[in-house]
Amino acid sequence: MSIKTKTQVGLIIILAVFALSLLLSQKATPNVSPLFSLKRVQEKVFLKLKSNPEARVDYMVFLLNNRLYELDAVVKAKSYDFVLPSASRYSTLAGQITDLIIANNIKDSIEPVKKIFENHSKVLNDLYVFYPENIQDNVEWKYIQDDINYLKIYLDQLSSVK
């Protein structure tokens, strides 16, 4: 094989591994560190590519659903070290969505986002009930309660938009 052919084959293999990693990272949870990091980078790039506030809100809602899935996954996998960062990512993103809607007066997004927040509150409440509070030195369940409380605040903020 010539050097040119070897280089081309090598590049194809590298691209194939990268593409496969991107595909696998889509459902990665925080306890799968390398793939999750790749997923987060990809999400940030896609968010930057959204040109208007409405498209950003839509994509951020998609990401919020992912953050809820991730929080649910780490709790159910008993990966308690990942509960705080997962819960924090969730509430931060919910707050960013709320701020973006209010700052840009995106009235068409208010009711759909409120419904999503209400549905997520139910899921978070179920997760809170599921979480084992009686494990010694395990107070991470409080962060799930914080997410529920933050959603109430964000719902109030969205309800007050005129």
Provide a short characterization of the protein structure.
With 162 residues, the protein is an all-alpha fold.
Give a topology summary.
Elements (H helix, E strand, L loop, with lengths): L2 H23 L7 H16 L4 H24 L6 H21 L3 H24 L10 H19 L3
Helix pairs in contact: 1-2, 2-3, 3-4, 3-5, 4-5, 4-6, 5-6
Structure overview:
The chain is mainly α and 162 residues long. The chain is built from 6 helices and no strands. The chain has helices at 3-25, 33-48, 53-76, 83-103, 107-130, 141-159. Helix 1 crosses helix 2, helix 3 runs antiparallel to helix 4 and helix 4 runs parallel beside helix 6 (141-159).
Q: Quick one: biggest sheet?
A: none
Through-space gap between termini: 69 Å
Helix fraction by DSSP (H/I, runs of at least 4): over 70%
Count of DSSP strands = 0
What is the 3D form? flat
Helix-strand pattern = HHHHHH
What are the segments in which pLDDT stays under 50 over at least 5 consecutive residues?
none
Number of helices: 6
In the residues, how many domains can be counted?
Answer: 1
Structural class: mainly alpha
Task: Supply Rg.
Answer: 19 Å
- Give the amount of beta strand, in percent: under 5%
Roughly what is the average pLDDT, rounded to an integer? 86
Kindly list the characteristics that best describe this protein.
6 helices, mainly alpha, 78% helix, 162 residues, single chain
